Amino acid sequence: MALVGYARVSSVGQSLEIQEEKLNGAGCEELFREKRSGVDRERPALQECLRYVRKGDTLVISRIDRLARSADHLLSIVKQLDDKGVALRVLDQSIDTSDAAGKAFLGMLAVFAQFENDIRRERQMDGIAKAKEKGVKLGRKPVLTAEQEEEARRLRGDGWALQRIADHFGVSKGLVHKTCSVMRTVSAF
């Protein structure tokens, strides 16, 4: 029955020191460290840590967001740990899944986190809809003007190669292909 710690920060410039101190203070015998975004589900140190832990071990983290960024991902990891007979202890939120109360509390936190994400997503969609109603154009500015797109289509119709058109406008060949393909799709109807 070992205590195994996992520490993660999002960027190279951030320090793992505070998390490492907490994990060492909790008695962790082994530490897995990572400098990678929590959104990335394929984190090598986390995968190695999940392979390393054995039945009876406890995975210790400082905060839930160090392990997962979504309720679904968190519950997936907790199930993976549970299937191996490994408990999860979260130091800052005082959660320990080695007992029923800890498992229930973690489940409730995950539900509330998902609810918060859903509400945030709804607000974002409402904001986007209102902006569109007001005529706000969303997304990146077009690389080519309408006139340049028309010229690109004309040049393509005159037999110019995609790369030559791309070089002419200083854009990628893919953008020219997309622009010229739109013409064919539209004119096909």
TrEMBL record:
CDD domains, per the entry: SR_ResInv
Q: Which residues carry out catalysis?
A: S10
Does the keyword Translocase belong to this entry? Answer: no
Its family remark reads: Belongs to the site-specific recombinase resolvase family.
UniProt entry keywords in alphabetical sequence: DNA integration, DNA recombination, DNA-binding
Q: Where is the Resolvase/invertase-type recombinase catalytic domain?
A: 2-135
Q: Which PANTHER family match?
A: DNA-INVERTASE FROM LAMBDOID PROPHAGE, RESOLVASE HOMOLOG YNEB
Starting at the broadest rank, the lineage of the source organism is:
Bacteria, Pseudomonadati, Pseudomonadota, Alphaproteobacteria, Hyphomicrobiales
Report which superkingdom the organism of origin falls in.
Bacteria
**Protein's organism:** Roseibium sediminicola
Question: Can you name this protein?
Answer: Recombinase family protein
Please give the InterPro entries that the UniProt record associates with this protein. Homeodomain-like_sf, Recombinase_CS, Resolv_N, Resolvase-like_N_sf, SSR_resolvase
Q: Which PROSITE patterns match?
A: RECOMBINASES_1, RECOMBINASES_2, RECOMBINASES_3
